[in-house]
Amino acid sequence: MSALDTAAQVRAGQRCALDVVEESLAAIESRNADLNAVLLVTADAARAAAASIDRRVAAGEPVGPLAGVPLVVKDNTCTRGLPTTCGSRILNGWRPPYDATVVRRLADAGAVIVGKANMDEFAMGSSTENSAFGPTRHPIDPDRVPGGSSGGSAVAVATGMVPVALGSDTGGSIRQPASFCGVVGVKPTYGRVSRLGLVAYASSLDQIGPMATNVADAAAVLEAIAGHDPGDSTSIPEPCPPIGAHLGDGVDGVRVGVVAELMGDGIDPAVAARVLAAAEVLAAAGADVVEVAIPALRSALSAYYIIAPAEASSNLSRFDGVRFGLRVPASTTPEMYERTRSEGFGAEVKRRIMLGTYALSAGYYDAYYATAQKVRTLVLDGFAAAYRDAHVLLSPVAPTTAFRLGENTEDPLTMYLNDVCTIPTNLAGHPAMSVPFGHAEGLPVGVQVLAPALAEIDMFRTAAVLEAGGAE
Ligand code: GLN
Fold this sequence. Notes:
This protein is α/β, with parallel strands linked by helices and 472 residues long.
């Protein structure tokens, strides 16, 4: 059952929120040992929250658009008094003293957090294999990855543990696991959703967003968490528009651009074929499909793998054994820093800290970081030109379907290439989403719908048409 239907029944008193939450907890109990999607189950707090919603329904009080809807949040999202690990050993024992804004807003909307989802350490990765707590497995084939870094959230939704979840997306971490697992995943416009209480990876790129089994539920969760937050200086002042109200608008007269640079080299032909099939569905619904070229996208991946590690090297300097979590004692303070960081961080996080520190160092700053920033501007200009010809763009989400566990772990470059289709929108700050659109070789494939900044309505109405026409 969809999250919206569940909430409607809870509000109408036809179903108890407590029963809904018990079902979700039972599903986690039966599937999580094999899948490792959820790191922490918050059963007691969830039961208490659900019981309070049921009491309010009985008393005729308002309970919110997501009343009684169980969900998991990625474990880089602060939950007051509850472990928040970021998939890392370095935060061992840390309990944030406050809730992320999204957590507060979900509670206000009546949603009930039942757990914290597994993830690549500090959201660095594309497979959830970089979690210090073991990999999450693909829901259809346990020898494959679910994608990442929000792999736990994707699997929790795909297997029915919860109808909706939150992930975070710095370079594709919501959309790529959504594509691999056959669920909807949305990266909102940068600033649409508050980052207060999201542990920072690359602050100029990070954005929280929903994952769901269907487009309408994703829209409802986005509306619940979006909107201005004075606690986040990058938060957009305008309120979030009513996205759900426009899902039936169709695409008659909408110009859809298929991104040429993301359809050729390196993209599995079976995946590209799904994008072309999606374009046909949109054309049949009255859209005007054109091909657009954005040459700057060829350099986007390289720019991202300078900018994101550079920001990460700065953001992660706070994990020093003094202020948060793990401390490995030593006789001097510098030694304590070194031992804590050596033992606390995994290999990929260390690689990024070193890459970023190098790119920002005085002798190389201009050659790497400054150049990458210029590329970022070219990517923005390229999108601006494309959006003069098209209202929304279409592309693959990832070059392939879900790959095998261990297949890319020895070769970081191959792993990074997975992000080639998703990274450009993060550099631009635009919204983009993955919509399930059939299968290739028996595995789910998502199609990516991209839109200009703040154009979530156009993105979602296009996604709704794809969802309706998505069966093979
Ligand atoms: N896979 C990309 C990376 O490793 C993106 C991760 C993300 O979006 N958090 O950086």
